Amino acid sequence: MSVMDITIHASFLPHDDADAALAFYRDILGFEVRKHVEYGGMHWITVGPPGQPGTSIVLHPPAVDPGITEDERRTIVEMMAKGTYAGLLLATKDLDGTFERVQGGNAEVVQEPAEQPYGVRDCAVRDPAGNLLRIQELR
Question: Which Gene3D superfamilies does the annotation name (predicted)?
Answer without folding.
Answer: 2,3-Dihydroxybiphenyl 1,2-Dioxygenase, domain 1
